[in-house]
Amino acid sequence: MPDLVYDASQPMPRLIEIMRRLRDPDTGCPWDIEQDFASIAPYTIEEAYEVADAIERGDMEELQGELGDLLLQTVYHTQMGSEAGLFDFASVANAISDKMISRHPHVFGDESRDKSAEQQVADWEQIKAAERAGKAQGGTLDGVAVGLPALLRALKLQKRAARVGFDWPTTDEVLDKIVEESRELVEARDTLTQAEVEEEYGDLLFVMANLGRHLGLDPEAALRAANAKFTRRFEGVEAKLAARGKTPSQSNLQEMDALWDEVKDESRRG
């Protein structure tokens, strides 16, 4: 009988067996054996972002590899759960399958599929609210994971609060709040401690995320796009400096700022 580790005809059992062997306390990899849930969690987050990055760049070949890396993270965590007698891959897969069936009664049950997207979202939220109640999560904000990236968690918290009516009615009130928070940040910078400045800065970021929600924008996607634009333009500045035989460290702010404007104008004309 062939070794499962080398049997490509059973991809999922093969991957689970590979991870089991890597974690074997006697014959496994020393690094893998030392890991725990907390030490692996940052890699899980990183791999999820790399999946998103491949999608954003439209690189489907790389996406395949990144999805494999992300799948490995699930297998890693379920192997550790199995070793501790907490759960295993089968129980995790069955739990998400049960959840998807429960949350889609219009597909797997006898509910009608003839409903708007808005009604489907409302139904979804009712189902999730019932799930939270079953877990003794009665608060509006219960279940919003603390470990989420801060910008994403801010957005989720704001959406939850908005569902129960705790929200500004228009973007005008949000913009007014941004002006208020900006003023408080300037005052804090001039008169308060660094910790208080950080608090005011966080308040401003939180409201900026709320503005994106009110405008129908994804703050994370908008910031990623801004990062990409900055990268393109700064690389353009570096290219223009290189044509002059310089690097940024051999230039100054005045020269680089002028080149930045050139790059920006060229990108707009392009």
From TrEMBL:
Catalytic activity: ATP + H2O = AMP + diphosphate + H(+)
Protein name per Swiss-Prot or TrEMBL: Nucleoside triphosphate pyrophosphohydrolase
EC number(s) per entry: 3.6.1.8
Family: Belongs to the nucleoside triphosphate pyrophosphohydrolase family.
GO molecular function, one term: ATP diphosphatase activity
Annotated spans, Disordered: 241-270
BP GO terms, sorted: dATP catabolic process; dGTP catabolic process; dTTP catabolic process; dUTP catabolic process; response to stress; TTP catabolic process; UTP catabolic process
Top-level taxonomic group: Bacteria
Pfam families, A to Z: MazG, PRA-PH
Biased composition (Basic and acidic residues): 261-270
Residues covered by the NTP pyrophosphohydrolase MazG-like domain: 35-108
